Amino acid sequence: MFSQRRNLPRHYRIHTDEKPFSCVVCHTHFSSKGNLIQHFQTHTNEKPFSCEICGKKYSRKSDLKVHYRIHTKEKPFSCDVCHKDFSQNSDLNRHLRTHTNEKPYSCDICHKEFSRKTHLNEHLRTHTNEKPFSCDVCNKNFSLKSNLNRHLRTHTNEKPFSCEECGKKFSRKDDLEVHFRIHTNEQLFSCEVCRKSFSRKDKLKVHYRIHTREKPFSCDVFDRTDVHEEHRTGRPSVISDALLRRTEEANRHLTLRKLPKIIPEVSMTTLHECDTVTLRYHKLCARLVPKMLTEEHKKKRMDLEAGDEFLNHIVTARALHLVTSTYSFT
After folding, report:
1. Which region, left, alpha or beta, applies to residue 238 given φ > 0 means left and ψ of -120 to 50 means alpha?
2. Coiled-coil intervals in this record (predicted)?
């Protein structure tokens, strides 16, 4: 029912989808003259409705009414599920989708679904590679305005996010959230293998490589991925044929503890790997000997009269015949 007869034809257009009013600029059609007038102000940039508190202007009176709720803190729309309040009905509708998991907006290219149309529009730029937001300083382009705003802080060195505990400032809110876990000792990311927890996801990712033995970083010089020792000591951790020869020759006369003095450019960890893993030496007293000595041999005590003379010879396979010909192991 309508109080005025003229409102009935306007209502009929809802059912007939008739739009007799057309914009002379962009030729968009509207069902009512009032909607056309409001639309036309987007071309003229006319904003006749002004906020009496902050002076912000709007082209539509309804937008000004919604804006006033920022000052009055009025939130007349409430969620029936979690009772959270909102200042706009559209915000409430978007929020309800977090409970229903409704995603009405779908990408025509990859069919990924979104709960908000703005998120769909942002996603489409990953397919079109469109970057409409440009930095005025370095002319770098971005697909999202929020990314541009973050980038601008690299030029201004602005850090608007401050830690309430220690006062440290950050240019990004997510960096502040990660930092704050230092104070709360909150560790949200847990390893599924060993249950060790971490405060940062990237730390967990690095930790997983202990279990998967993944080594994604390769040395450009030696084509090796085992470069952890270089990072810690600055000395190479590459086991080459030349290094094996030097290590084996040195082991004929030296203990493992003295090897780094003869080969200082290689880390002690790598030298140990050469001896015990690659060359398969075993430690006998203070010296390294080949694994061809049996467990029984290694348990037997040497003749006390031999003393250091024995240790000076039984260090490599070359000297093994001195042992078998001079001493009895049975």
Report:
1. beta
2. none
Residue 60 lies in a domain: no
Give the structural domain span for 196. Answer: 159-212
Each residue of 56-93: pLDDT tens digit? 988 888 888 888 988 999 999 999 999 999 988 888 98
Query: What is the per-residue burial (b if ≥16 Cβ within 10 Å, else e) of 179-209?
Result: bbeeeeeeeeeeeeeeeeebbeeeebeebee
Helix and strand numbers, DSSP H then E, in the chain: 15, 16
Q: If you search the block for the tokens 């990859």, which residue do you land on?
A: 110
Number of structural domains in the chain: 1
Q: Does the model's pTM come out above 0.70?
A: no
Would you say residue 174 lies in a domain? yes
Q: The CATH number of the domain where 185 resides is what? A: 3.30.160.60
Q: Which residues in 85-96 are b (16+ Cβ under 10 Å) and which e?
A: ebbeeeebeebe
